[in-house]
Amino acid sequence: MTTMKKNSQDVSVQLYRSLLIYSVVGTLIIGAIIAAVSIVPLSERMKEYQQDSVKHAIHTRLIAVRQFISRASEVATQVTSRTKAREGLEAYNRNEIDAAKLDLTVKPLLVEAVQRSADVVGLLRFDAQRHPVIAVGQKIPEHHWVIPEGSASTPAISGPVEVDGVSYIVVGASIVNPQKERVGTDVILFKLAALKPIIDDLTGLGTTGEAILFKVLDGQASPVFPLQRVQGNAITGAEQALLLQQFNSTPSADSETTAIFRDSSGHDYIIVSSPIKELSWLLAIRIDKNELYANITEQIALIVAIIVALMLIGALIMALLLRPLAGRVMIHTDELEQQVQEKSKKIGQILQSIGDAFISLDRDYRVTYANSHVENMFAVKEDDLVGKDVWARLPEVAECFLTGMQQASNGNVSVRMESYYAANHSWLAAHIYPLEEGLSIYLHDITRRKIAEQELIKEREEQKKLIERLKEAQNQLLQSEKMASIGQLAAGIAHEINNPIGFINSNIGTLRSYVLDLLKLVQLYEASEEQLKEGPTAALIQATKVEIDLPYLKDDVKSLLDESHDGVMRVKRIVQDLKDFSHVDEAEWQQADLHSGLESTLNIVNNEIKYKAEVIKAYGELPLIECVPSQINQVFMNLLVNAAQAIEEHGTITIRTGTSADDNGCWIEVEDSGKGIEAAHLTRIFEPFFTTKPVGTGTGLGLSLSYGIIEKHQGKLEVRSTVGQGTCFRIWLPINRPPKP
């Protein structure tokens, strides 16, 4: 008892110390996280601010450069807009004055215009044919001339160019008359001296920063003015490539691009650039990265020091505040431990009283508890399980429910699963629940239920098969009854038609005899017509003959009688074919002529075939076959209709017959030139309800019923098909009816 109390006190002291240590460490960690989360964005924002200051500096210089360019364009526009100078040039273009007169009248005006601007050092005026006619001030070399296209109102600017060691820009402006026609061009040379102080201004750029104006030409970026702070007054190839990339990637003027460049000595430089696309200029500011961010580093270091000091002070305050709380925790530890032991005892009693096996595992799959039902179910004592690896003591159980245990552990979800336990030939249902310290598993024997389920499933499968067979038999019976009804109906119709057709045929024969007699009488009258004297009667006879067209009537009445007789005979043949097809007036099994059955069937389905295919008959010699003729005719009809429906446009249906000497039988083939049957369908075409036809055009019973009829006659129905070429069905029948098996 004393030992247990001492152990409890040791645990309390350890808990007290752990609480203090974890609280202090937690405070420091939280402070560190807050510092990291706040300092990193702050540092980035401060860097952005410094970069914005550089962007502001380049933007200020960019405005000054554009003002210089705009001033040059304005001066050129003012020079070209002088009316008297333009009118003198127009007179020269029209050959009203010569070159000397032009020089005398216009040149003084141009000299005055040039002297008005301190930046203009030279001017060259061109006539309408772009020939130089007047030169003022500094000579402009021909390869620097800038001639705008057409009558463009905006001057064209080029440069910088170097003339006698001095840098200039060249401005070309069109001289346009009131009718908006170009009458000449002025090319003006401007000094870049006014632009150099703007670029050389180092205000706000520290000790390493410098503004540089580049001319981008032929894949090179060349400084317009000498560099002040770049060592060696040269730009390296790598920096050249970076500047060209910034120039090409910047979408438009008045936008900046920022990049970091590292020179050969390892120094990083921030380069901010903005292009002047119309002149292929690039204005850039280059400044050492360390100098730009120097203040930021100092400020961040100061902030970190303040945060660390605050964290230490907070940890000390936390430790002082937690000391009373830790003391109260030590007081209640023993009481809580006793309560836990009592509740654990009650839970153990509950788990022993349930009717299922219960096992609890730690995270390493070691058994921490097992109730008495585990011993009854698996023949392993509780003492041999607790503290042991479940794989060592119950390997079969662990193997059965491995998937469920992994799923419950990894997904922190409860899992229910069933598995067959081969060791005692039983089925077990497991409920696996995740715990903080491992898993709990409830195992229940469900062998009786599984056996009942399997028996029920087996019984249902047998019922399904029986229902399918009943459906198949019912549909075949319905189809057979329908065909029999159609046959009886056809026979009845044939019988009903036969009677009127008989007396129609007889009457037509008699009528033909009467008409021939009447025609003989008319012929005699015509022969005696010449003996009649001319008079009213003779004139009336002649008029009547013309009116009724007697010669045509005599010829046509014979044709009408012949056609009527042919029509009646065709109806008689159709009626006979219907009777032959149905065979309702004959015995069930009898000797039958299959060729006759084929012919009668072809007549019946002629309307189905005649628009789709040409029937080719290749009949051999066939003896009389003992069969049920109506059923065999039904098979013929199904095969012929299917063959016609398989032909998409127009094709052929070939019917072949012959005998087999080796097996005392005969065969009939029906082959079409249709689209064929896919190999995957060939094994199923004789199944009930299977069809490849569109919905509404087939029941899937025709071939199944045909197969059953041939099988009933102890024959064979075979098929071969090639997709895209056609299909051939072959029937083999014994000549004599075999004895019943």
Notes on the protein architecture:
- With 741 residues, this protein is of the alpha+beta class.
- It folds into six domains: 2-57 and 295-341, no CATH class; 81-194, 2-Layer Sandwich (Beta-Lactamase), CATH 3.30.450; 197-292, Beta-Lactamase (2-Layer Sandwich), CATH 3.30.450; 354-445, Beta-Lactamase, CATH 3.30.450.20; 451-574; 586-734, 2-Layer Sandwich (Heat Shock Protein 90), CATH 3.30.565.
- The strands form five sheets. The protein has a five-stranded antiparallel β-sheet with strand order 2-1-5-4-3.
- Strand 19 (651-660) and strand 20 (665-672) form a beta hairpin.
- Helix 1 runs antiparallel to helix 7.
- The protein starts with a helix and ends in a 7-residue tail after the last strand.
- The model is unreliable at 1-7 (pLDDT under 50).
Predict the CATH topology of the largest domain.
Heat Shock Protein 90
Overall domain count: 6
The geometry reads as flat
The CATH superfamily of the largest domain bears the name Histidine kinase-like ATPase, C-terminal domain
What portion of the residues fall into strands of 2 or more residues? 15-25%
In round numbers, the mean pLDDT is: 77
Taking all Cα atoms into account, the compactness measure Rg is: 58 Å
Question: How is the main sheet built?
Answer: 5 strands, antiparallel
Which class of the largest domain in CATH terms?
A: Alpha Beta
**CATH-derived architecture of the largest domain:** 2-Layer Sandwich
